[in-house]
Amino acid sequence: MSSIVRWCLCVVAWCATSAAAACSREDAYNKMMALNQYGMKLQAALPDPLKDPAGYNANYQRVIDFGARLGGVGKTLAAQQYEEACAKYDALARDYRVDIAGQHVRPLSEIEAEAKKPANFSITSSTKASGQLAPLVINIFKGVRSGR
């Protein structure tokens, strides 16, 4: 094998691994939301401390440790260090055996798109509403002008 072919194969392999390892803002936030949901499930699974103090004490520290590690990654995410945040989220998921995809959280892009346009928004209903409001607004202005 020529050195040029080997060099090309190395470049292709490097590109493939760096592309696979890339973690976007959305990837990091989606992992964070999935792990937050799992943390809520951990808390909800704690037994009632009054009815089962031993069971509560046995599981409480696991919930606290998970929350502390998850919260610690929040600083990395806030600093927009997405690669590092994803690596830490993946490690946390691995340590706690969390199936991130199995948490079924809505992707960040979907949530952001909804924030820009409400879910029940439609041009037709908006047009109808503005058509119904127009006569009312005109009457209000007429009343203001006439001193009513």
Explain this structure to me?
- By secondary structure, the chain is mainly α.
- It has one domain (23-143).
- 76% of the residues lie in helices and 0% in strands.
- The protein is built from 6 helices and no strands.
- Helix 2 runs parallel beside helix 4.
- The longest helix has 26 residues, at 53-78.
- The chain is elongated, with a radius of gyration of 26 Å.
- Mean pLDDT is 79; it is low at 7-20.
List keywords for this structure.
0% strand, single chain
Describe the SSE topology.
Layout: H1 3-21, H2 25-44, H3 53-78, H4 82-95, H5 108-116, H6 123-146
Average predicted local confidence, pLDDT: 79
Q: What structural class is derived from the secondary structure elements?
A: mainly alpha
Low-confidence residue ranges: 7-20
For the terminal residues, how far apart are their CA atoms?
93 Å
Radius of gyration from the alpha-carbon trace, in angstroms = 26 Å
Total helical elements = 6
Order of helices and strands: HHHHHH
Judging from the principal axes of the Cα atoms, what is the shape? Answer: elongated
Concise summary:
This protein is mainly alpha-helical and 148 residues long. It has helices spanning 3-21, 25-44, 53-78, 82-95, 108-116, 123-146. The protein is built from six helices and no strands.
